[in-house]
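step: validate -> pass
step: tokenize input -> pass
step: predict -> running
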Amino acid sequence: MKTARRHTGWIGAAAATLSAFAYPVTGAAEDGRFQKLSVYLERNMQDHDAEIRFEATGAEDGLAALKVLAPGARTVVDLRSPDSKLGVRSLTLESPEPDDDKIVRADFPAGAYRFEGTTTKGEHLRGEAQLSHVFPEPAAFEYPRPDQKDVPATALTLRWSVPKGIEACALVVEQNGSAFEIRALLPGSAKSFTVPKGFLRAGQAYTLAIGTVAKDGNRSFIETSFTTVRER
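step: predict -> pass
step: emit ->
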């Protein structure tokens, strides 16, 4: 999702104490060697774009090499850090976001993705994660209304509805034109979120995105914008 992708580093002082920074693990590591493996699809309902994301966290030692093989043993990721003594312990990789999710699904078929890693000390790590092509149904905004201009800057509670069977809700609030944002990962049953005092400014435009996260990790985002009331 483009909104989420602009701030992959989870910027923002307000987010530091409020956001949950880990999504559900969607793949189990063989022999416990990889601490985390996942592969999932993400789509933006408004822009009609989609991307695939790979996440891998190794053991205590950094990775000197990581390879990911799609169903049929086709290599889709092949990374190396041959001149680093520490290597890379955790990686999140994402594809471009074509407007047609069929392009992403054609390049990355559903099924088992095999992860193979080599640490800086020569240990070989192996694991597997499953990719599904089924997207969860999106949420629906209740408040603020799309493009609402008179939203209060204090005591604002965001509200939405979600379909049944959702594992989690990912929420993003961005102050347009700045690096300030809030990110929160909420239970799938959540239908509201109160913005912390002091985050919103009067007369400012904001972007709100809510993503429904399925048990397999796939997620569907919807976006809207709102503007807070100006000071009198």
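step: describe -> Residues 4-26, 28-32 have pLDDT under 50 and may be disordered.
step: cleanup -> pass
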